[in-house]
């Protein structure tokens, strides 16, 4: 069992059950879009954010991104960490067919992928704070200069980059910037972009 300091926010009960199999800590479910009308739940998240910090770990589909965005608006940014499930095609064991977007949710990810995502987000696991490898020096200007924003083909290049580094392809340029500053240095980003550019 891994002990995690931050409260983990997931979408549903199956996500929670998956994490409880190997994580010792507070794991809360939004019950999907029910979070939008549950003021008590939002207050609980805000309280936990102040006490231990929170990490949002929703699915990488459009619904998960909307829920992530909603919670992000309710908590001070410095108290929130973001763990991202990579885009992996497939169907969870309990389902007969894939989701509308054909991607595995948090419940379908392996323990290794989940722990890596939590560490990459900077979570404290077993008393050790995740140590993102990046230097935090990537800017919006860098994204523009590398063709990742503001130009023709930028969206497609961001999607290729997202697949290359194992994060959801539907991240906005701002969310991608946050992720990049946790995962890679500017030099590493330049190298990756040169490799994936058509």
Please describe the topology of this protein.
Blueprint (H helix, E strand, L loop, with lengths): L1 E2 L3 E4 L2 H8 L2 E2 L2 E3 L9 H13 L2 E3 L5 H13 L5 E3 L28 H10 L3 E2 L2 E2 L10 H6 L8 H12 L7 H11 L2 H11 L2
Parallel strand pairs: 1-3, 2-4, 2-5, 5-6
Antiparallel strand pairs: 7-8
Count of alpha/pi helices: 8
Provide the β-strand percentage band.
5-15%
Secondary structure class reads alpha/beta
Order of helices and strands: EEHEEHEHEHEEHHHH
Between the first and last Cα atoms, what is the distance in angstroms? 43 Å
Read across the widest sheet, the strand sequence of neighbours is 4-2-5-6
Give helix % range.
Answer: 40-55%
Task: Classify the oligomer.
Answer: single chain
Shape: globular
Major sheet summary line = 4 strands, parallel
Unreliable segments of 5+ consecutive residues: none
> What's the β-strand tally?
8
Cα-atom radius of gyration: 17 Å
Mean pLDDT, all residues: 86
3D architecture notes:
With 198 residues, the chain is an alpha/beta fold. Helix content is 42%, strand content 11%. The protein has helices at residues 13-20, 39-51, 62-74, 111-120, 140-145, 154-165, 173-183, 186-196, and strands at residues 2-3, 7-10, 23-24, 27-29, 54-56, 80-82, 124-125, 128-129. The strands form 3 sheets. The chain has a 4-stranded parallel beta sheet, sandwiched between helices. The longest helix has 13 residues, at 39-51.
């Amino acid at each position: 069992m891994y002990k995690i300091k931050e409260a983990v926010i997931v979408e549903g009960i199956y996500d929670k059950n998956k994490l409880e199999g190997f994580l010792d800590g507070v794991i809360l479910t939004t019950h999907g879009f029910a979070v939008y009308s549950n003021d008590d739940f939002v207050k609980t998240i805000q309280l936990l954010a102040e006490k231990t910090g929170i990490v949002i770990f929703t699915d990488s589909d459009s619904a998960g991104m909307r829920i992530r965005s909603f919670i992000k608006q309710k908590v001070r940014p410095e108290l929130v960490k973001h763990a991202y499930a990579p885009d992996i095609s497939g169907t969870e064991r309990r389902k007969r067919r894939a989701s509308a977007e054909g991607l595995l949710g948090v419940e379908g990810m392996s323990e290794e992928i989940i722990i890596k995502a939590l560490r990459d987000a900077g979570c404290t696991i077993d008393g050790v704070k995740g140590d993102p490898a990046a230097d935090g020096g990537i800017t919006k200007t860098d994204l523009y200069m590398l063709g990742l924003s503001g130009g023709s083909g930028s969206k497609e290049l961001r999607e290729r980059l997202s697949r290359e580094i194992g994060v959801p392809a539907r991240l906005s340029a701002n969310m991608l910037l946050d992720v990049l500053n946790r995962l890679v240095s500017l030099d590493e980003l330049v190298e990756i972009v040169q490799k994936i550019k058509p």
